[in-house]
Amino acid sequence: MEITEILLSAQSPNVNIRSAAEQKLKQFQEQSLPIFLLVLSAELSNEKKPPESRWLAGIILKNSLDVKNLARKRELTQQWINLDPSVKTQIRELVLRALGSTVSEARRTSSQVIAKIAAIEIPNKQWPELVEKLLCNIFNQAAQTFLKQSTYETLGYICEELSPHDLEQNEVNSILTVLVHGMSQSEHSPEVRLAAVKSLFNALDFAKTNFDNEMERNFIMKTLKKQEEDQDQDSDTWNLSMAGGTCLGLVARNVGDAIVPLVMPFVESNIVDNDWCRREAATFAFGSILEGPSIEELSPMIHSGFDFLLNAMKDPKNHVRSSTAWTLGRIFEFLHSPSNIESVITPVGLPRIMCVLMEAIKDAPNVAEKVCGALYFLAQGYENGGSNCSVLSPYFSEIISALLYTADRTDSSNFRLRASAYETLNEIIRCFTKSETSNFIPKLLNGIMNRLSQTLRLQIVSIGDREKQSDLQALLCGVLQVIIQKLGSFEETREIILHSSNQLMSLFLQVFSCHCSTVHEEAILAIGTLAYVTGPAFIKYMQEFYKYLEMGLRNFEEYQVCSISIGVVGDICRALDEKVLPYCDGILTHLLRDLSNPMLNRTVKPPIFSCLGDIALAIGEHFERYLPYVMPMLQGAADLCSCLDVNDEEMVEYGNNLRRSIFEAYTGLLQGFKDTNAGLMIPYVGHLLQFTEAIFRDKLRDEAVTKAAVAVMGDLADTLGPNTKIYFSGRTFHQDFLGECFKSDDDQLKQTASWTQGVIGRVLVS
């Protein structure tokens, strides 16, 4: 049987097909390991093969080289060492070739496979040409962007696998040099620059020798002084100064307090220098080390230097003012919390801060953008203050006016300034208390609706005009979503939304005429929030809205739109309950098709299972007609969880999301059938408990999965009662599972576990 067909069958939702394929793969591996590994490598590198089979080929190949169990890992290492050298050479060439694949899954898994091979061979002085070949990929002028990106990722994985002593110092130097090159302005692709930054993070241990050398350590502090006169006119421009700050920030996050005495002499000796480059570099360096060190370590310096920073917002040089505003934002982000006695912001000092920021927001666009960021984090620190009146309340009117003025500025063609202004406005709204919501939002709601209405009348004569319209509509829909959410959070203000819902819905539906996915995302999110707030009254909009919802559910190419549309289905179900029934046939059809679609991004699939639970809970007994189609998908996904690669962090995260969503689906089903036809779920009890026990024994599960698993056991016992006695009495794992929960520091988890223990206990004595 062709390997492609077996690999695809091994991912089938049908448990019988999947098990048969897994058995064939196991037999192939046991009968002829060299050919098995060679065939997998060929599948991974073959551009004519399906992405799904290539991805799984890479995962199996990686798992044939490394596992967490140390004894088994030694066996796999020896197996590889014992392979015929010609076979190993072919495999190396094939996986290196896969780095240039047009399929992202193939590139990523090949990067990981190369690193696993390198972890075995390089310490044994084998594959000496690997680093040189990877460097050639990067410096090759004709290399595609995705090849460079995957090569940087490979270097990062290699640095993660090896110890600094495994490579020669000249190889370490070459790797560090190429990573800095990847972060520089000469590299135009942001994806490549990001890959280089991430790889540098993994390579920090390799830089120890370089950091021990005072000359090389000082060199990083000097890439900070390499500013360019126009760099801040477009802050996306990557340069040596930004690379130095990024590197310094990564070091600070890793070493914490130890970075402070190393950097502060540079800051103190340059921040008052006559040379603006030195002043800006010192400010930038200080801002770069604020994430990592403790507030106790930083607080004395912040308190003593805070007035200086506020005064620096009047520096004659634009670059210095911009970096100062950015640094203030970093201070507010990491060191500002009213509940912390070490907080750098005090009621006494707040008026001066607000005066400086309100003046600085009128500065040049690049400075104003950083000021918006500073206001954002300043407001965020007060978001959960809990008092009846926010500390920022006296300034809200001025802040709102300043942000709306900033969003309307015409002296900048840079979209980021407008986006930053509206995002900061959203955060200000989130800070509103009940009284502030009543005082400020009604007027703001009308103003934002008028702005959105005006975008519908803009004259569009070019693609650029269309993009500007789409960007502005997306931002305004985002603000309206936050406003709707805030008004809906208080009974006293909910009525405002009910009176405005017709106008809001009309605007959102008109916005759908724009064919931009970003606008669709924001408009759909806003409509989902409107449905949640208006409740059953939303039914009057469903007929007109459904066609757009259906478009979103079908849009697997722009998977973010699809994912958001799925989430909105849940909002609508919670709002309408059984009134959503006329639309369920169409919705279920699209959801099940999405689950079966191999081209849909896998991150969308967990929300689909959660959504199925929302639908079942909303329509109750009417969900019976969908059980024959939904349950095989649900059980197949549960079985698939055991096949995921536990050595891949992204796959572990995906697995946890998938498991949690499966439990959420079962909870919706059980609660939906509870008062009508609970017996429909009895045939699925055994499989559900088997899955739950497997999750209990999985030490990689996160807390959200634990909560969902414990809750579903309680729902099972509560819904089916004595019918589950035979299942719980035959399995004792639930006792240990609940015992583990009672030791948790999470009070909510303890409460859920206590409830679950009670209902299971009643079943067992029934």
Automatic annotation (TrEMBL):
Pfam families xrefs: HEAT_EZ, IBN_N, TPR_IMB1
Subcellular localization, as worded in the UniProt entry: Cytoplasm
GO cellular component: cytoplasm
GO molecular function: small GTPase binding
Domain Importin N-terminal: 21-101
GO aspect biological process, one term: protein import into nucleus
Keywords: Cytoplasm, Protein transport, Repeat, Transport
Listed PROSITE patterns: IMPORTIN_B_NT (PS50166)
Signal peptide positions on this chain: none
InterPro entries from the UniProt entry: ARM-like, ARM-type_fold, IMB1_TNPO1-like_TPR, Importin-beta_N, Importin_beta
Stated name of the protein: Importin subunit beta-1
Source organism of the structure: Ananas comosus
